[in-house]
Amino acid sequence: MVRVHIYAMDYENVADWRIGEAKKRIWELIKIPLDGQDTIKKLQLAELAVQNGTFKNRLAMPNMRPNNSRFVGNTSQASQNNDQVPASNMRRRSFQ
């Protein structure tokens, strides 16, 4: 439960307008988005938990493609055959 106190000191109609605007903005902040669209909030809360020392990794790891480069630290395809010569002047690449 979240409790928020909003206080405005002005003419009555101006204070009512300011309180209404504050309510709208607060509701936008605490509104629960549709499933899968709250990634930024999850990451922000995870960062806060890391700072507080209470972080437990419950977030799904992002899908990362394997490194297909044969020049830079490629450990994903250890048995890659680099002796094949392309049939044309175009370099042949295969993706899995």
Description of the structure:
The radius of gyration is 27 Å and the shape is elongated. It has a domain at 12-52. The protein is mainly alpha-helical and 96 residues long. It has helices at 12-30, 39-52. 0% of the residues are buried.
Descriptive key words:
96 residues, mainly alpha, 2 helices, 34% helix, elongated
Fold topology:
Layout (H helix, E strand, L loop, with lengths): L11 H19 L8 H14 L44
Q: How many distinct helices?
A: 2
Derived from helix and strand composition plus strand pairing, the structural class reads mainly alpha
How much strand?
under 5%
Shape: elongated
Taking the alpha carbons of the first and last residues, their distance comes to: 48 Å
Q: What is the rounded Rg?
A: 27 Å
What's the quaternary structure here? single chain
- Listing every helix as H and every strand as E from the N terminus to the C terminus, the arrangement reads HH
- Helix % is 25-40%
Record field, number of beta strands: 0
Largest sheet: none
Mean pLDDT: 73
**Low-confidence spans: pLDDT under 50, at least 5 residues?**
none
Question: What can be said about this structure in brief?
Answer:
This protein is 34% helix and 0% strand. It has 96 residues and is mainly alpha-helical.
